[in-house]
Predict the structure.
Amino acid sequence: MVKLILILGDQLSLDVAALRAADKASDVIVMAEVFSEATYVRHHPKKIAFIFAAMRKFAQSLRGAGWQVLYSQLDDTQNGGSIPAELLRCAEETGAREVIATRPGEWRLIDALEQAPLKVTLLEDDRFLATHGEFEAWAEGRKALRMEYFYRDMRRKTGLLMEGGKPVGDKWNFDHDNRKAAPDQISYSGPLSFEPDDTTRDVMDLVAASFPDHFGALEGFNFATTREEALRAMAHFITHALPRFGDFQDAMLSENKFLYHAVLSPYLNAGLLGPLEICEAAEQAYRDGHAPINAVEGFIRQIIGWREYVRGIYFLEGPDYTGRNALEHKRDLPALYWGGETKMHCMSKAVAQTRDEAYAHHIQRLMITGNFALLAGIDPVQVHEWYLEVYIDAFEWVEAPNTIGMSQFADGGIIASKPYVSSGAYINRMSNYCKSCHYSVKDKTGEAACPFNVLYWDFLMRHKERFAGNPRMGNMYRTWERMDEGHRDTVLSDASALLQWLDAGEVI
Ligand code: FAD
Ligand code: DLZ
Ligand code: SF4
């Protein structure tokens, strides 16, 4: 009996579980571009173009390898508009009664497949290093789920940067060396860029016509859309950027969007690259003396540590995770997140690059746009939907824990042991944004004062009950207590005025 084998837009790997379970002689692959996936949040046009172009090319390579593929383009007249509808249509066309799928990376779609009026078997997505079972076993009985301990287990499991059962360099973590301030000059010209071919151009035309009101620029699309191209992008990063990745991992520059970051997350998350092959290439660069340990360890930790850990949390915590709001933040996301005018240079730069590239690096996401949303008390669900929409690498299993947990502390501290908040001083230390800003980072109060400076204290005071007893935050509360009372009153009234302007839609 013929079975349908579903391959989703972020499952573009030849070793994905559903494909491994398929029989080339009798089974039919289903791949579908559908409105529901492109619009349940209004994804950035570059993200949709990336997924559709990569899907079309993957389907082509499957056909070339002898698979029978039913591929629905978004503008096919019979397209049912959703994954379940397309499965039903393909089942009618082929007489199939059974679907084999790899478990999607989002509860919404898992639920939709489970509700579909067909027999659907969901196989575990084993393109990750830790299974759900392993993560649950690791989490069981622990008071705190700190990434660092999980990461050490992943090092032991994979053998990456291990020697005789011990971590290379006798230290698990070289983060201490990875906090250098922004350099004046960057010697790297950025990630490898790929000229759109005919398939990609067709997709771009379709996306431009179909999603004209989605936030983001489509022009300048230059991402890899095949595994072969993604492998070249990876090799380019390892050769040219990895050696300095560690040093400037937390730095930000007005004139440079990528610094020494990999920009490999879209390829990894869509399935064009696997986590182990990237880490092995990075480790080889260390063994060859091409890249130092702080860079290679830091890079590998992001992939086998953070990436695997946040996935574990997403599936451990369940479908209600994205709705959590431990700090009870209720403010609407301001227009400046959609490119509305702002006098804050750091925010303006981070949002503009997000609009243009569908990409911002980790510290921009965490310490600029995330930091501001948290300080201003913005509803974390709206913040989560923004991140899911605007970044090319955003899929809920990885985006939600980073946003709800790490960035907005809305899970009450499962991921972060303290909120990632800072005043302008941190941003000034790690970037050159403040030099070109309307506001003065040195001013603590008054009209010219950096908004991060006043909102920082306002946040700490709003949540004093929750955080004053946190051992990692006590010194901040003691600093506040030492300030002159009149100054403290001015800080809080300036913050209150700023938030009122924000609510009134004024430009801040
Ligand atoms: P690099 O800095 O070069 O890091 C190398 C790789 O490590 C990345 O490609 C990525 O696969 C992995 N990685 C690094 N940090 C993380 C992390 N915290 N969680 C998971 N993987 C990580 N990452 C996503 O892949 N998708 C998202 O939707 C996403 N949303 C985020 C939202 C917020 C609020 C924050 C603070 C972070 C988010 N991240 C997300 C994590 C991180 O910012 C991106 O993985 C990274 O910026 C991708 O760019 P890069 O490939 O240049 O990364
Ligand atoms: C992100 C995305 C988009 C924009 N479009 C499609 C699509 O048309 N068809 C498809 O199979 N997958 C798409 N995806 C990826 C899915 O949204 C993704 O598989 C789920 O969010 C689970 O991670
Ligand atoms: Fe951002 Fe404040 Fe610096 Fe301006 S002064 S760039 S608002 S941190």
Summary: The beta strands are 3-6, 28-32, 68-72, 98-102, 119-123, 162-163, 166-167.
